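Anyone up for a design puzzle?
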């Protein structure tokens, strides 16, 4: 018998899933180092994109954006259709000062799920800071075409200055 959280469980019951659940609990309590240990141990059962994503988010929250980028990039390669992964990669790249990469990831996140007003605003601000006004205009027009009632996009479009 193994003892997991003070409860006797058989060895067969200790799995990647139980390690992930324990990691999520620690993560939610902001016990990042302990949660990281559990996530990494769970990787011994497989490196699925969700696990890679969760570890990447944890590392970003723990102030380690370079390490976070590695796991999030691997998660993105495993599942390129996840707007959450792309959004997090954009945020990590932005923290690392990699504006062009951040713009690309935020744009992909918006492309995958247009109804993200906060991400649209961040993308717009990055594009304007990079003086890429035409791209910002085009991006907003595209979002409005897909999400005609998104007030944030209309507001940003009205305030763009070429």
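Challenge accepted. My sequence:
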């Amino acid at each position: 018998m193994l003892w997991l959280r003070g409860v006797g469980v058989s060895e067969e019951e200790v799995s990647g899933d139980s390690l992930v659940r324990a990691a999520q609990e620690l993560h939610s309590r902001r016990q990042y180092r302990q949660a990281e240990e559990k996530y990494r141990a769970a990787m011994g059962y497989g490196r699925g994109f969700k696990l890679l994503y969760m570890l990447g988010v944890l590392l970003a929250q723990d102030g380690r954006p370079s390490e976070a980028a590695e796991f999030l990039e691997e998660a993105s390669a495993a599942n390129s259709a996840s707007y959450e992964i792309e959004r997090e990669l954009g945020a990590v790249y932005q923290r690392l000062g990699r504006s062009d990469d951040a713009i690309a990831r935020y744009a992909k996140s918006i492309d995958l799920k247009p109804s993200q007003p906060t991400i649209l605003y961040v993308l717009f601000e990055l594009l304007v800071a990079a003086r890429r006004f035409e791209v910002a205009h085009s991006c907003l027009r595209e979002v409005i075409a897909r999400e005609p009632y998104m007030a944030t996009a209309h507001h940003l479009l009205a305030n763009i200055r070429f």
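A detail worth pointing out: The chain is about 70% helix and 5% strand.
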